[in-house]
Amino acid sequence: MRRLKKKYETPRKPWDKERLEKEKELMKKFGLKNKRELWRAEAMLRKYRRMARELIAKKDKEKERMLIEKLKRIGILREGNALDDILALTVEDVLERRLQTIVYRKGLANSIKHARQLISHGHVKINGRKIQYPSYLVPLEEESGIEVEVK
To answer: Are 100 and 119 within 8 A, CB to CB?
Structure first.
């Protein structure tokens, strides 16, 4: 049996009041099921920021271009942004690209929790393909193909 590794890291100080309040606010704003979803987004952002710092030090133009293109495809970075802009990204930028958030922002669901329920029940399709994961990061080219089919 293959063991999967965790895609997140728990906070070092579990009872830091300021962090707990910030996490609670983000969970409510983006309709997250549990803190693990938030920590997974933070870990992903940490990974891209670390890569950007290493590329700034190495000055490898090809890998730099590849990283920027990947983040532009996902929609986290805008057109014309540079490597320094990756360091200024926040966890909200990543959470805004989740399917759950996009379905709600487009007005296809009444609330952020309703968007999550529509997705997990299989009513949301992207270019005719059913996606059942609210945490799916929607690339920019797929964003226009989102549709909700309620039977």
So the answer is: yes
Q: Residue 115: which of 125, 126, 102, 130 has the closest Cα?
A: 102
Q: Examine the pLDDT at 33 and tell me if it is beyond 90.
A: yes
Give Cβ neighbours of residue 68 (< 8 Å, ≥ 6 apart): 77, 81, 82, 83, 86
Q: What would the two tokens of residue 44 be? A: 């992903």
Say which DSSP state 77 is in: S
**Residue 150: pLDDT band by 50, 70, 90 thresholds?**
confident
- In the chain, where does the domain assigned CATH 3.10.290.10 lie? 99-148
Identify the CATH homologous superfamily for domain 99-148.
RNA-binding S4 domain (3.10.290.10)
Rounded to whole angstroms, the Cα distance separating 57 from 26 reads 32
